[in-house]
Amino acid sequence: VPMTGLPSAFRLELRANLADGAVVDLGVVDGRREPLRPEPTTRYQPVLIRCMGRMGTTWLIQLLSKHPAILAHRRYPYETGAARYWLHVFRVLTGPGRYAEATPAGLTRSEWRDAMVDAAELSSADPVTVGSNPLFGEYLDDGLTGLGDPHPDRTFGAWGGLVRWLGGDYGSAVGRFCRQSIDGFYDEVARLQGQPGRRYVVEKYFDTYDGVDLNWELYADAREVVLVRDLRDVLCSVFAVNAGLDQPRFGRGFFDNDADYIQELASRAAQLLRSWQDRADRVHLVRYEDLMAHPEATTTAVLEYLDVDARPETVAAMLRGALADGSRLVGHRTSGDPASSVQRWRRELPGELQAVCREAMGDTLAGFGYPRR
What we know:
The chain is an alpha/beta fold. It is built from 15 helices and seven strands.
């Protein structure tokens, strides 16, 4: 059964909540789930730009959108996210409901089942919530776990065909619908923008979104670019954007002080680093600094990764087209020019915050190829 909420290789930790409140570790289960089977008939293959805020994705997408094989919805700042939306729809419609968030610990099996049913009914009554996949619902749970039946093995056999349909044909049908929706959306974008015949669609995919691996499973020729920037320069850019705002952006308003915010950025960046390292054989890494200092070479490398026309004249035309649209980015920049946006932290970041960054981000900075100091 493809359980799309889990990575292809996973580990489940089993714990029991006892009546006296104690928690007992029972063990772990290592497993692999069956991968999805992509269909080669889709018109577009998504290129997801994995990133954090203020890392340069707006400029990168503006640049890539000038290639004759790549399509982006030209709605500044390029955050429409249609492919991202339907990938998430697929994950929700084929994954289990979040019963764990709705059920307290220490319940008997009967009490747990009742709480699970209540959670499902509440989600189904919510006009903006889909609820759970029936594969994980109360009736199949009875059959799979044997709740209410003294002979669970005998019960399981009667449900086998339904389980296989929900885990196989159903998932394929939902995946087909989501791919068709992405195709339909970008067909209309291509028509309105006068850009037929594109091979890829490019979108931002922020690090806080789950399910990026589904892109690889639902599409035979998917691509992913991880765009990174020196986190200390990211921090300076965030501070510059938020200067004078009543409601700080990029999550800064959730933290009482800059040091705590730095810890949050460090945690998210470390996760992004692990995600890239785990899939470095198929994911292309771009550093913002290289894109600014060596735009021709960096763009060429991205196009070669996408297996599209990367001739020098094509890259030069892309850069000219992106620069001609540069007025869109005037309000987006927080530094005078690209050169001054690199290593600005040495000039702008107070010494005490530089020390916090070294402590919290040092290993991640080194992992992405940046100096610790």
